[in-house]
Amino acid sequence: MTSATIESIEAILVDLPTLRPHKLAMHTISQQTLVIIRLRCSDGVEGLGESTTVGGLSYAYESPESIKANIDTHLAPALVGMDADNVNAAMQCLDRVAKGNTFAKSGLETALLDALGKRRGLAVSELLGGRMRDSVEVGWVLASGDTAKDIAEAENRLDQRRHRIFKVKIGANPLEQDLKHVVAIKRALGDRASVRVDVNQYWDESQAIRGCQVLGDNGIDLIEQPLSRINRPGQVRLNQRSPTPIMADESIESVEDAFSLAADGAASVFALKIAKNGGPRAVLRTAQIAEAAGISLYGATMLEGTIGTLASAHAFLTLKKLLWGTELFGPLLLTEEIVTEPPVYRDFELHVPNTPGLGLSLDEDRLARFRRP
Ligand code: MUC
Ligand code: MG
Fold first, then answer.
1. Mean pLDDT across the stretch 5-9?
2. Which CATH architecture has domain 127-351?
3. What's the longest Cα–Cα distance across the chain?
4. pTM above 0.85, yes or no
5. Is 68 a residue of the active site?
6. Is the C-beta atom of 54 inside 6 A of ligand 1?
7. Does the structure show a pLDDT above 90 at 1?
8. Cα torsion for 306, 252, 100, 308, to the nearest 10°?
9. Active site residue 46
10. What separation in Å is there between the alpha carbon of 250 and the centre of ligand 2?
């Protein structure tokens, strides 16, 4: 029974300022571009989604501009006229129309789920099978590039009971300089915090062997994507010899990547990102592969605003175990908001209301102010 059809889909580029420059190995973010999806249905319900990436084209194969162009030209026309309630049929149609393009697909799947949830009076987490928790722990990423500033930032977040998990972005500097930076942060924070690193693929195997040993010896809890996603044999060897668990991030660009990483034994933790799997339902397929393979989970981000962050959170609420917590801090890095219900961060966690859909609506004035002309 069809209760509504998809009438139109709009992809909107929104440029928002960040609290401070956010330095990743390959790119410094000083403003973040969100790709916001508005999916309008024949019954007047509007679903919201987000297809955001980081660093233009420097992180992934999709840029904000290509995501918008591909939605406008290929994906939206394929969906218009379809049953708005049948998320399976819509997503299978998109998989026929487009190879890859998981960022674009993730925003569209989110918008379909949001519309369905609003229509049925169910939260997205309920549509995904039901929640195991109402909140998730949220870590912060230290990426000012300066040791003293990073320590002061972490101390401030600890005092506010905002974060007690810190991921340090490294990889751009000489190895010994990066190691000194991380070890100094861990020494300052001690047992009050979990300190982890993200190398964003910048080490070769010789650097990774030394880097993982030193970080392990100095109390670092987790090492994210030290090697190139292409170097699968290296990842397998490093996963066997590193004293600290290795987490796959860039190595997972699809559910199928997750399967082959698990089969090869290339990581012991998976970073879950809705954008890199093709949506909140797709990311749960990767989580199920990990669960079956005994790989533990971390709820990761592409530095989305509130819509993408809440979409991720709704998926992560349904997981049996989320051993490594999450980094759903995107809205806290942005200094402006475009929805009328800012997310609730309290006592180290993001609290997710059990309201229909994502529980969000756009602030039209703020959207008009920040959308790209
Ligand atoms: C990444 O590699 O994890 C997510 C958080 C952050 O600071 O950068 C992104 C991308
Ligand atoms: Mg990463």
1. 98
2. Alpha-Beta Barrel (3.20)
3. 63
4. yes
5. no
6. yes
7. no
8. 0
9. no
10. 7
